Amino acid sequence: MSKEIRLKKGLNINLIGEADKVYASVKPTKRYVVKPTDFHGLTPKLVVKVGEKVKAGSSLFFNKYDDKINFCAPVSGEVIDIVRGPKRKILEVVLKPDSVIDYKQFTTASAKSISREQIIDSMLKSGIWPFIRQKPYDIIANPSDMPKAIFISAFNSAPLTIDNDFALYGMDELFQKGLDYIVQLTSGKTHLNIDGNTNPSTVFTRAKGVEINKISGAHPAGNVGIQIHHIDPINKGEVVWYLQPQDVIAIARLFTEGKYDVSRIVALAGSQVKKPKYYRTIAGASIANLLADNINDGDIRIISGDILTGQHIDVNGILGFYDTTITIIEEGREQEFLGWILPGLHKFSASKTFLSWLTPAKKYSLNANMHGEERAYVMTGEYEKVLPMDIFPAHLIKACMIEDIELMENLGIYEVSPEDFALCEFVCTSKIEVQTIIRNALELVRKENS
Amino acid sequence: MKLVKNILESVKPLFVEGGKLEKMYPAYDAFETFLFVPDHTTKSGSHIRDAVDLKRTMAFVVLSLIPCIIFGIWNIGDQYYSAISAESNFLNSLIFGFWKFLPLLAVSYAVGLSVEFAFAISRGHSVNEGYLVTGMLIPLIMPVDVPLWMLAVSVIFAVVIGKEVFGGTGMNILNPALTARAFLFFAYPSYMSGDKVWVHGAGADGYSGETILGALASNTASWDNLKWNFNDALIGYIPGSVGETSFIAIIIGALILIFSGVGSWRIILSTFLGGYLTALLFNLWGVNFLMSTPAHIHLLIGGFAFGAVFMSTDPVSGSQTNKGKIIYGLLIGFFAIVIRVFNPAYPEGMMLAILLMNVFAPLIDHYIVDASIKKRLKRVN
Question: What pTM, to 2 d.p., does this model score?
Answer without folding.
Answer: 0.91
